[in-house]
Amino acid sequence: MAEKKAIFLDRDNVINEVLTNRVRFVNKPEDIYLLPGAADAIAAFNRKGYMVLVTTNQAGVGLGYMTQGELLEIHKHMQEKLINENAGALIQEFVACIHRPKDGCSCRKPEAGMLLQLAQKYDIDLASSYMIGDQETDICAGKKAGTKTIRIADSLEETQANFKFPSLFNVALENIF
C-alpha cells in the first residue's frame, strides 16, 4: 500500500478561537467558534489529496476541567460545524494528549508521539506531510516527526517553522503543497 500524505493540525487558535472575547478555553461543545476560513482551508487540503488529522494538547482533561467523554463531544461538535460550513471539511481523526504538562509523556507536544502514532496507523509518509500550529511546541513536534512545518502567527513572531502564515485560510491560498 502506498504511503499517504497528511496535514496534522493543532486545534486551538488554528481551527477555533481561544482566549478571545467570546471564549477563554474550550471545555464544552458550545465553546467552539471556528476561525474564519478554517473549514474552507480544511476542504482545500482534502481536495489536494491530504488526509487531515488533528493533534492537540488538552491538559484540561488531566487537570479535571473536562472528562474524556466531554472532549470527544467537543470534537464531534467541531466536525459537525466544519461540515456545515463546507461539506468537504473532513477531519479523519482527532487525537489528544490529555496528560498534565509536567507528566512527562511522549504524546504531549513538543514531543512527536501523536504524529508518529497516526503515521503508523494510516501509513503516512511524514516527509511529504505538514504540521500546522500556532505554537513553537507544534513546530518542534512536527520537526521531530520529520514533517515540514507551518506556523500560524503574525509576521513579527520568530519561528523555526519552514513557513509562516497569519491564518489557516492563508495557508490554503498559497501554492506550497
Automatic annotation (TrEMBL):
InterPro entries: HAD-like_sf, HAD-SF_hydro_IIIA, HAD_sf, Heptose_bisP_phosphatase, Histidinol-phos. PANTHER family: D-GLYCERO-BETA-D-MANNO-HEPTOSE-1,7-BISPHOSPHATE 7-PHOSPHATASE. GO terms for biological process: carbohydrate metabolic process. The keyword tRNA-binding does not apply. The active site is at 10 (nucleophile), 12 (proton donor). Zn(2+) binds at residues 97, 99, 105, 107. Mg(2+) binds at residues 10, 12, 134. Its EC number is 3.1.3.-. This is D,D-heptose 1,7-bisphosphate phosphatase. One of its GO terms (cellular component) is cytoplasm. Coiled coil: none annotated. Belongs to the gmhB family. It comes from the Bacteria. One of its GO terms (molecular function) is phosphatase activity. Its cofactor is Zn(2+); Mg(2+). The lineage of its organism: Bacteria, Bacillati, Bacillota, Bacilli, Bacillales. It is found in: Cytoplasm. The record marks 56, 109 as: Stabilizes the phosphoryl group. Keywords: Carbohydrate metabolism, Cytoplasm, Hydrolase, Magnesium, Metal-binding, Zinc. Pfam families: Hydrolase_like (PF13242). The record marks 108 as: Contributes to substrate recognition.
